[in-house]
Structure formats: structure tokens, C-alpha cells
């Protein structure tokens, strides 16, 4: 039987310091922290998805072959103007690496602002909102 993929449920991110990374995503991007599984497992929830956090050296098995901090480029869709994203990043003391710039997203044109999380992952905050 042939199948197709419907959506992403969750991704796993390896970080240097689980507490620092979780706090950054809560403070800067407004994600909700969730403890689960009874063994100090931590996830960051947003919308209908989540990011499971693994601390480097204590990854949960199975894991990616080259699981390491700072290896991801992630694009999150936001429902605010790019100028508001820049203002939020600045208010949180986060440097804007690039943007706002026009890109092509999964559903068409987006305007993106880029920054980095505490582990060096590239974070793209994209808006489908028109002018």
C-alpha cells in the first residue's frame, strides 16, 4: 500500500543546555513548555506541533546519526507583520541576522526575519500577511 505524508507532528532538537534553550523559546517565541514521559523529557508546544528537546550527551534513543546542537534551520510561520517580529526580537535582546526579506514558502510568498537561538540554530520567522 502506498501512502503520503500529511504533516509534521514534531521535530527533535538537540541543545547544549535544555533549560537555556527552553527558556529562550518560551520568552522569545511564546512557546509553551511541557514536561512529559516521567524521565525529565521536555517539549515546546506551539499550534498543533511540538519540538522535543534532547540535551547533548543525553539524547533519547533512537536519535539522528549526527545529533548535535546548532544543526537546524527552522522556519516558523507567524501571524504578525515582519516589523512586529523585529520589534519583539529587539525587545528580547535577540539580534536580527537578516530581514525582513521576501522568500518563497510552502504556500507562496512570505516575508521573513532571521535570528539564531542559543545553540546557533537558524530561526526564520515568516509571515504570509500581505501589505
Structural write-up:
It is a single chain. Helix content is 17%, strand content 40%. It has 131 residues and is of the alpha/beta class. The protein has one domain (10-127): Roll (2,3-Dihydroxybiphenyl 1,2-Dioxygenase, domain 1), CATH 3.10.180. The strands form two sheets. It has a four-stranded mixed beta sheet with strand order 1-4-3-2, with helices on one face. A four-stranded mixed beta sheet has the order 5-8-7-6, covered by helices on one side. The model has no long low-confidence stretch (mean pLDDT 93).
CATH superfamily: 2,3-Dihydroxybiphenyl 1,2-Dioxygenase, domain 1
Low-confidence stretches: none
Give a count of the beta strands, DSSP E runs of length 2 or more.
Answer: 8
The structure class reads alpha/beta
The helix content, as a percent range, equals 10-25%
CATH C-level name:
Alpha Beta
Please trace the helix and strand order, writing H or E for each element. EHEEEEHEEE
What Rg do the Cα atoms give? 16 Å
Largest beta sheet: strand ordering? 1-4-3-2
Q: Profile the largest sheet.
A: 4 strands, mixed
Kindly state the mean pLDDT as a whole number? 93
Distance between the termini: 45 Å
CATH architecture descriptor: Roll
How many domains? 1
Give the amount of beta strand, in percent.
Answer: 35-45%
CATH topology: the name is 2,3-Dihydroxybiphenyl 1,2-Dioxygenase, domain 1
Number of helices: 2
Protein name: Catechol 2,3-dioxygenase-like lactoylglutathione lyase family enzyme
Pfam families: Glyoxalase
Domain VOC: 7-128
Keywords: Dioxygenase, Lyase, Oxidoreductase
Amino acid at each position: 500500500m502506498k501512502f503520503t505524508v500529511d504533516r509534521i507532528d514534531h521535530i527533535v532538537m538537540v541543545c547544549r543546555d535544555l533549560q537555556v534553550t527552553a527558556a529562550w523559546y518560551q520568552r522569545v517565541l511564546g512557546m509553551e513548555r511541557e514536561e512529559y514521559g516521567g524521565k525529565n523529557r521536555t517539549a515546546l508546544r506551539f499550534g498543533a506541533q511540538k519540538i522535543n528537546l534532547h540535551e547533548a550527551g543525553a539524547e533519547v534513543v533512537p536519535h539522528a546519526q549526527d545529533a548535535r546542537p546548532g544543526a537546524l534551520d527552522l522556519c516558523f510561520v507567524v501571524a504578525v507583520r515582519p516589523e512586529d517580529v523585529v520589534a519583539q526580537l529587539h525587545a528580547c535582546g535577540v539580534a536580527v541576522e537578516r530581514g525582513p526579506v521576501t522568500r518563497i514558502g510552502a504556500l507562496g510568498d512570505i516575508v521573513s526575519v532571521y535570528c539564531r537561538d542559543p545553540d546557533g540554530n537558524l530561526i526564520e520567522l515568516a509571515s504570509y500577511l500581505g501589505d
